[in-house]
Specification:
With about 140 residues, the protein is α+β, with helices and mostly antiparallel strands. The chain is built from 6 helices and 4 strands; from the N terminus they run ααααββββαα. α5 packs across α6. The N and C termini lie far apart (about 65 Å).
């Protein structure tokens, strides 16, 4: 757990990290608006807390894993790792995480973005084949 002073310096907790500058609602009701935003993002699975999620291996190395939401936007994200001792930050490591779609998901995404007409025709064809296959299976199983 990080101390309140260190949290203010490094913007670790959501209350410190989520700033709604320039939002007219924020100007009138800053705390209510921020709490509602954080609550909604928690419910959507975009914000989460994983206490004890870091595993120390070989005495000095650590590892953790997290599931990214399926609707995450492709891009480069900044990750920050803070090393704490006695509730104080003693070191900070920053790196970039590259989020990209791969495999068939990448192909489908590119088709939808770059060739929407072809993507639409393929979707219709797939729906027709799936419907025909399902009707054939039910016709055979349920005479």
């Amino acid at each position: 757990m990080i101390s309140h002073v260190e949290d203010l310096i490094h913007n670790v907790a959501l209350d410190q990290a989520v700033l709604l500058i320039g939002d007219p609602q924020y100007e009138r009701y800053p705390e209510d608006h921020r709490r509602a935003l954080i609550r909604l993002r928690h419910e959507q699975g975009l914000y989460f807390r994983s206490i004890g999620g870091v595993e120390v291996t070989q005495g000095t190395l650590f590892e953790t894993s997290l599931a990214l939401p399926g609707r995450i936007v492709e891009g480069d994200y900044q990750a920050r790792v803070l090393l704490l001792r006695d509730r104080k930050v003693i070191d900070v490591f920053e790196d970039t995480i590259f989020v990209r779609r791969v495999g068939i998901e990448r192909w489908v995404y590119n088709a939808a973005q770059e060739r929407p007409a072809l993507y639409g025709l393929m979707s219709i064809a797939l729906a027709l084949v799936a419907g025909w296959t399902a009707s054939t299976i039910f016709r055979v199983l349920l005479p």
